[in-house]
Amino acid sequence: MQGVIKAYDPGTGDGVILCDADMAEYDLAGDAIEGSVFRMLRQGQRVNFELNDDGLATHLHMGSEVDMGTPSFLGAHHSAEPVADPL
């Protein structure tokens, strides 16, 4: 699943992810960042995650606009050529 960090408290490890697919909110499991590259999470950070048997977000790993297929990155082609002046 894919989403963004809605809230995160580094002191307690409590947090919430907002899922891209259905805009549902999922609480973080206590082990959500164990074994991942994350030491902290920040609000708005894009992540991939799984849900455990209790419905908590776990197994967080990095996400990006490109690998999540955000529309602005799909088929985008940027040209370095200058645009001709129509006059």
Could you please describe the fold and organization of this structure?
- 0% of the residues lie in helices and 31% in strands.
- It has one domain (2-66): Beta Barrel (OB fold (Dihydrolipoamide Acetyltransferase, E2P)), CATH 2.40.50.140.
- It has a five-stranded antiparallel β-sheet, with no helix packed on it.
- The protein is built from no helices and five strands.
CATH A-level architecture: Beta Barrel
CATH classification class: Mainly Beta
* Number of domain modules: 1
Structural class: mainly beta
Tell me the fraction of residues in β-strands, as a range. Answer: 25-35%
Residue stretches low in confidence (pLDDT < 50, at least 5 long) are: 70-81
Helix content: under 10%
Annotated CATH homologous superfamily: Nucleic acid-binding proteins
Compute the CA-based radius of gyration: 17 Å
User: What strand line-up does the widest sheet have?
Assistant: 3-2-1-4-5
> Averaging pLDDT over every residue, what do you get?
80
- CATH fold-level assignment: OB fold (Dihydrolipoamide Acetyltransferase, E2P)
Number of helices: 0
Order of helices and strands: EEEEE
Per the principal axes of the C-alpha atoms, what is the gross shape? globular
Q: How many DSSP E strands?
A: 5
State the end-to-end distance.
49 Å
Largest sheet: 5 strands, antiparallel
